[in-house]
Design a protein that fits this description.
The chain has 271 residues and is α+β, with helices and mostly antiparallel strands. It has helices at 38-46, 74-81, 89-93, 101-122, 158-174, 191-212, 214-219, 223-239, 252-265, and strands at residues 2-8, 11-17, 136-137, 140-144, 154-155. The protein is 44% helix and 8% strand.
Amino acid sequence: KTRGPLLLNGAAEEVEHHSAVILTFCSCRTGQPAWGSLVEGMQNLAHAEDCSCKEKRDATFLPPKKLPANSRYSTLLLERQKTLGSSDLWEQVKLPEGANEDEWIAIAVIDFFNDLNLLTMALKDCCTHETCPRMSAGLYTFAWCDGDRVKTPTKMSAPDYLEHLMTWVEGELNNEAFLPVKAGAPFPTNYRKGMRVIFKRLFRIYAHVFHSHFNDFVVGEADAHLNHSFKHFIYFVKEFSLVDSAELEPLKELVNLCMEQRLRSKGKKVA
């Protein structure tokens, strides 16, 4: 067992690794999710903001993050629309010609935040303090630390970790000193470093879900959405070097599979 602290915005974060990683996709411990299907649950959550009869148990659902109308991102958002729905995810993640890379990353992180918000909330009845007393991914265990609400690395249940993570990301994205929305406002010098921390932590949601709840997604008929979302995420972080390979170890096999599929689709031979 090895343990290593990582410095994140002045705080130490702890990742615990227990010997070798063995990827498992089926560890459903709760049976059929409480919703009729996870797809239905995700659809309900996606429309929750417009629903006057929203259940109280969904009160922790974070509203979708949207960039202000007529912001500096408006033109780039229109450009992105041209590739949405394309079967080639790799083309979707590429920086449009003449676009600002920092702005492109900002648009993408909001999309991933909204998507993972739906995924985690759809699993609310499967991922509980009882089924997931530790935030883990196979043989990796993650301790939360943000230097503000939690000042030292603290092990906690997966639901608690996910709530801390998503609330923290929301705060970062709402901070215009970090993610400026006005045209001409400069990005801070720590912008790319901060984005790397955000993407690294968002990856841990996928890691936990694939190791502990993949079968829940299969039973709930939402595995296709999960796989598509994960592949999109991996293509993006690889394209812009946003997550170190060491941080992707909990899903190393799946990451390699995604990249091999990418190479095959372009007719290249995998080394």
